[in-house]
Amino acid sequence: MTVHPSLQPSVEAWTQSIESISELVASLVDGEWNRPTERVGWSVRDVVSHVIGGECEALGDPRPIHTLPRDLYHVTDETSRYHEVQVDVRRHHTGPEMTSELEYTIIRRSRHLRNERRNASDVISHPLHGKLPLGQYLQIRAADVWVHEQDLRRALGKTTTLDTPAALIARDVLLQRLPEVVAERAQAPAKSAVVFDVGGPVEFLRTVRVDEQGNGSVDSSPSLGPVVTFTLDWETFTRVVTGRLRGRRAAEKVKVEGERALADRILAALATPW
């Protein structure tokens, strides 16, 4: 591996997850490609298409010129529309076409990463994420691929892989979403705290704090008087924070203590699909 040492953990985690996806789908029959996943509106084929599209864009490939159908109910904003183009353009591809493109994309992207000479602090531009350090972008890619690996495992009845290196990176990436969700989308009151107490293969406690100006932050210090405490297991946390578990299904799997109305707003705000 010739990448900068600070990038290597993300590259290795990405490699493990995307190769697992390749193994999962290598022997699928036609009907299995059409199985629905927990990602709203997406089948197994669609999830794999999204993974391929994300890596093609990371390689600098031009985006497909494609007009989306008007009846895709799960396309509700510009972000979902952006993601959907790479998915919809492959909706009629056969299983062999999908696996061949995935394998070729993995080969190309792996070679690209092996030849990477930049370091983690070098700033890049992305149409969705804006300007961000390369190290952060590779963490997002590793987390994204891991989340979708779990989508495929659940859809195909395979055991989820919840404690891999990519899972730990996903934890950190998902936690970065919480301040915006709690403080801005759910409008938690100023000078309040919301606690997420997560158990299981990846165990942690995090507190989202809202300051006097309504800005959110997250840290690992406990709060003496949180307005809401969520207690849940790691897999449920990932499914809730990525919009896989929504509404009543989420409420049934999450123990809530504190102000129920605020807790409901937070759970609803977390429902934006990853």
Automatic annotation (TrEMBL):
Read off the SUPFAM superfamilies from this record. Answer: DinB/YfiT-like putative metalloenzymes, SCP-like
Domain (Mycothiol-dependent maleylpyruvate isomerase metal-binding): residue spans on this chain: 15-153
| Ranges where the MDMPI C-terminal domain occurs | 169-265
Among InterPro entries, the record links this protein to: DinB/YfiT-like, Maleyloyr_isom, MDMPI_C-term_domain, MDMPI_metal-binding, SCP2_sterol-bd_dom_sf
Q: Does the keyword Ligase apply?
A: no
Keywords for this protein: Isomerase
Keyword Isomerase on entry = yes
Q: Which GO terms describe its molecular function?
A: isomerase activity; metal ion binding
- From the Swiss-Prot or TrEMBL record, give the protein name: Maleylpyruvate isomerase family mycothiol-dependent enzyme
Q: Which organism is it from?
A: Streptomyces mimosae
